[in-house]
Amino acid sequence: xxxxxxxxxxxxxxxxxxxxxxxxxxxxxxxxxxxxxxxxxxxxxxxxxxxxxxxxxxxxxxxxxxxxxxxxxxxxxxxxxxxxxxxxxxxxxxxxxxxxxxxxxxxxxxxxxxxxxxxxxxxxxxxxxxxxxxxxxxxxxxxxxxxxxxxxxxxxxxxxxxxxxxxxxxxxxxxxxxxxxxxxxxxxxxxxxxxxxxxxxxxxxxxxxxxxxxxxxxxxxxxxxxxxxxxxxxxxxxxxxxxxxxxxxxxxxxxxxxxxxxxxxxxxxxxxxxxxxxxxxxxxxxxxxxxxxxxxxxxxxxxxxxxxxxxxxxxxxxxxxxxxxxxxxxxxxxxxxxxxxxxxxxxxxxxxxxxxxxxxxxxxxxxxxxxxxxxxxxxxxxxxxxxxxxxxxxxxxxxxxxxxxxxxxxxxxxxxxxxxxxxxxxxxxxxxxxxxxxxxxxxxxxxxxxxxxxxxxxxxxxxxxxxxxxxxxxxxxxxxxxxxxxxxxxxxxxxxxxxxxxxxxxxxxxxxxxxxxxxxxxxxxxxxxxxxxxxxxxxxxxxxxxxxxxxxxxxxxxxxxxxxxxxxxxxxxxxxxxxxxxxxxxxxxxxxxxxxxxxxxxxxxxxxxxxxxxxxxxxxxxxxxxxxxxxxxxxxxxxxxxxxxxxxxxxxxxxxxxxxxxxxxxxxxxxxxxxxxxxxxxxxxxxxxxxxxxxxxxxxxxxxxxxxxxxxxxxxxxxxxxxxxxxxxxxxxxxxxxxxxxxxxxxxxxxxxxxxxxxxxxxxxxxxxxxxxxxxxxxxxxxxxxxxxxxxxxxxxxxxxxxxxxxxxxxxxxxxxxxxxxxxxxxxxxxxxxxxxxxxxxxxxxxxxxxxxxxxxxxxxxxxxxxxxxxxxxxxxxxxxxxxxxxxxxxxxxxxxxxxxxxxxxxxxxxxxxxxxxxxxxxxxxxxxxxxxxxxxxxxxxxxxxxxxxx
Length: 951
Hints:
Layout: E1 7-11, E2 25-28, E3 32-35, E4 42-44, E5 56-59, E6 65-69, E7 74-76, E8 83-84, E9 103-107, E10 114-120, E11 124-125, E12 128-129, E13 135-141, E14 149-156, E15 165-173, E16 180-186, E17 189-196, E18 199-200, E19 206-209, E20 221-223, E21 229-233, E22 247-253, E23 258-259, E24 264-265, H1 269-272, E25 274-280, E26 286-293, E27 297-304, E28 315-321, E29 327-329, E30 335-337, E31 344-348, E32 360-366, E33 389-391, E34 401-406, E35 411-415, E36 423-428, E37 431-434, E38 439-441, E39 449-456, E40 464-474, E41 485-488, E42 500-501, H2 507-510, E43 517-523, E44 538-539, E45 545-554, E46 560-570, E47 575-576, E48 580-583, E49 602-603, H3 607-616, E50 627-632, H4 635-640, E51 654-655, E52 658-666, E53 672-683, E54 691-698, E55 711-714, E56 723-728, E57 731-732, E58 740-743, E59 747-755, E60 764-775, E61 779-786, E62 796-802, E63 807-811, E64 827-831, E65 836-838, E66 840-844, E67 849-852, E68 856-858, E69 860-861, E70 864-865, E71 878-879, E72 886-894, E73 900-904, E74 915-916, E75 919-920, E76 924-934, ...
Parallel strand pairs: 8-14, 34-40, 41-46, 47-53, 48-53, 54-60, 70-77
Antiparallel strand pairs: 1-34, 2-3, 3-4, 5-6, 6-7, 9-10, 10-13, 11-12, 13-14, 15-16, 16-17, 17-18, 17-19, 20-21, 21-22, 22-23, 22-24, 25-26, 26-27, 27-28, 29-30, 30-31, 31-32, 33-35, 35-38, 36-37, 36-39, 39-40, 42-44, 43-45, 45-46, 49-51, 50-52, 52-53, 55-58, 56-57, 56-59, 59-60, 61-62, 62-64, ...
């Protein structure tokens, strides 16, 4: 019979080793109470308890109320005050309703009639301060009196430290049901007292030290249900004060009763608030704390105890309005919260879940006429420790879960308790089905349902334990039978029987729907499925013929099915096919404004053409009806059938001399018949020469029509067999097919070069562009000269030209370095013109020539002279006339009285020196009349005056 590992599906509630019914009735707050015996909490309003904080309640193993207390008074199940053995009313116990935990009731481990009530007091009672009575306990016999009687106590456990004792107390089972530890703390010392068949060992406390010293006595103390952790809430706040209290977590040894760690601080007052209530989840995997952020914010945090760094897992579960309040785990697996002065309790619905899945209901249980205060009744934490149901084969814990079992497999379920004297009774959906410790189930033997075990202990504890698990049988995945996977062996050693397989290709054939399954492959020897194979690249471990196990697992239910598949290696070798030539792509092919081709060094190939060639050369043995043709870039891809080259083939680009492998398989089968190889050879585009910067065509000025001049445009690709087409401004130029075209017009010339390749159907074509610009020498249209200015720098010549060129200008020079470019192309103005004859040259920057103007005369009548022999203006004359431009120069000079004192009739005359008839004339103004006649007969006259200056 197959025993399968069981998998967790989702959480539900399980019953405890004490059956948890001892904690089924709660009394707390102001006449508040709830009853869990129906499975859901029901409000009780018959209690007499009115307490600000501490309270305790106990029921029998069937959930019937026994008694309850506020730490000072004890009420029986009849809601009457219990009495001492001497008849006095039990209304003066050493606890206190204002103590955080006040009291805790512990049943004697091996006597169902005896209970111990432990109390912790406080300094504060009803607006007056009394001395703290410390830590005490009382013994109660429920068979006596009318619902119980205090037969002993108080017995002090404070070790003479009453006044310092805290308000904290908790309890948990020891090594087994025969021992219980009661635990409290004073300052930094934990006191643990063992309770066994001999009663409370109050003379021998186990004392452990804490590195953390509480600042205050208030706040709760709890042990985890599994007895491994202790949580301490150090409450230091009031509505107007925060204090420094922290939540501290300790390790606990429930065998020895010792605290085994120094304590880990988990909260920070300034950010989290100060802690009051604490509680563990049923599985002891999570810790919860309620904190007060003054003045009135109630904060609940969760910590994950399974994490290596518990403090870092701090997560807020809820935050709202409210004062300090307790947290308490209940028999229904929920943790309830008390916020003072409410008519309801809040609840953490699923406390073992991770924080992001936790559901907290602020209003979860109505209390009827009762109202909350700060406290809730504590219990022995072991009441809430779940009994464990195990997989007998693997010891995996099944309880607290809904288990998914797989149809076709059988399972054995056992409780962890194993005492041969105990009685085991199994129920399925409430019907008894077996009386053995081990229960065997499958989908036909009992099937899906709720399985419960009831264990009647016939040993010392005489307890009844129960546990349950929900079982759902689910089908295993279906695996289709497939043909052997035949692979071609065309590697370097294609006769060795070993090659690579891509097992992922089988998945679609093995299962009809792979959306919620995992598919893994294993060697048949790996019966425990511990070493899954590399599905995408598996090399067979046995030559030629080999078997593998495929395992298909449902991802939700974890049920799986297996099947054997066959692999076969076919020693085929590698066929060689003819290479394929393709034209290089043009990078500018999609750019309508492109002026030239740019080769990409790559291209694509239509592999359907290759398929047809292979078929045509197969002699009828191959066709697309009977065979699949798959193309790959590498032998590994072809072997594993990955990265297949698929239509549209334009998406796969190849560089020159690229290898391609074609895998030919029988249609619809994972069987390789042959593999072939060929190369892709990328032929370069014939890209002609061009010039986008512009070829200059020099024309006449004025331009002649027809225009006789030409320029040779050479587009030669360097391959003599290439042919050409020429276009002018987008229009084909007929019958022009040579590499050179003589252009006689400015514009855009596109040239296309064509190259024939014997293995490519369409000629290869590349193109380029010539831009032809017309230009010419400048034609002078006008020259305007301004001379004889008071400031010689203002003498200027302005020239205007006409033409198609790009012109620059030079004065009295044709040296290239003397030419300058003006702001305007067709006009330029020179200033500071020297007296004499000047000429202007105009150069076409496009290289079509230089035009030089005729001589331009510039004259200057001196405004003064200084005949002092220094070589500067020692005589007076008209500057700029000593050249062949003027034929006649006549100048008369007068003094201020109109007397003629000198006359110049020679254009080369050195000028008047300021002497008249041998007499040096004084500084004064003198006048002149001038008449100039140029060689063309034009006369220029001027009358003016100048100064003779003597220094």
